[in-house]
Amino acid sequence: MVAKRANRLFQLRLAVTVCELKTLSPDTSPEAEAVQLELLRSAPAWRKLQMSFNLTRGLKEMILADLQQRFPDDDEETRHRRLAHRWLGSEIASRAYGPPPEES
Predict the structure, then answer these.
(1) Which residues, including other chains, have CB under 8 Å from residue 83's CB and lie 6 or more apart?
(2) What are the structural domain ranges in the chain?
(3) CB 68 within 8 A of CB 78
(4) Inter-axis angle of helices 76-88 and 90-97, nearest 10
């Protein structure tokens, strides 16, 4: 009985969510996005934190790859200074690491 009621509540919540939502991504249906959001909401805190760390790491890797492509002659220290200026903003990065490297 409890499982049946919980399933019914989930279905109602999903239906309401689908009706109220505009999707965040144009290639995702409202129904699919509602399921994704429900899975995210029900995920334990450790899993949400893990996903956040993975997204952060992925973003840093993409920035470093872009810097490698744009400045192939930079050494590792210079590339990480450029990363700091993009990641932290120029004001904070300049205080921590000095002025940004010259654009060449």
Answers:
(1) 60, 63, 64, 67
(2) 1-42, 44-104
(3) no
(4) 140
What is d(CA 67, CA 76) in angstroms, rounded to the nearest whole number? Answer: 10
What is the share, in percent, of the chain residues with pLDDT greater than 90? 62
CA-based nearest residue to 71, from 103, 35, 27, 24: 103
Determine whether 82 is exposed, middle or buried from the number of CB atoms within 10 Å of its CB (0-12, 13-18, 19+): buried
* Average of per-residue pLDDT across 25-36: 88
**What is the per-residue pLDDT across 43-86, written as a single tens digit (0 to 9) for each?**
999 999 999 999 999 999 999 999 999 999 999 999 999 999 99
Residue 64 phi/psi, 5-degree rounding, is: -65, -40
Enter the DSSP assignment of 43.
S
Q: Is the pTM of this model over 0.70?
A: no
Q: Which of 65, 63, 71 is nearest to 93 (CA)?
A: 63
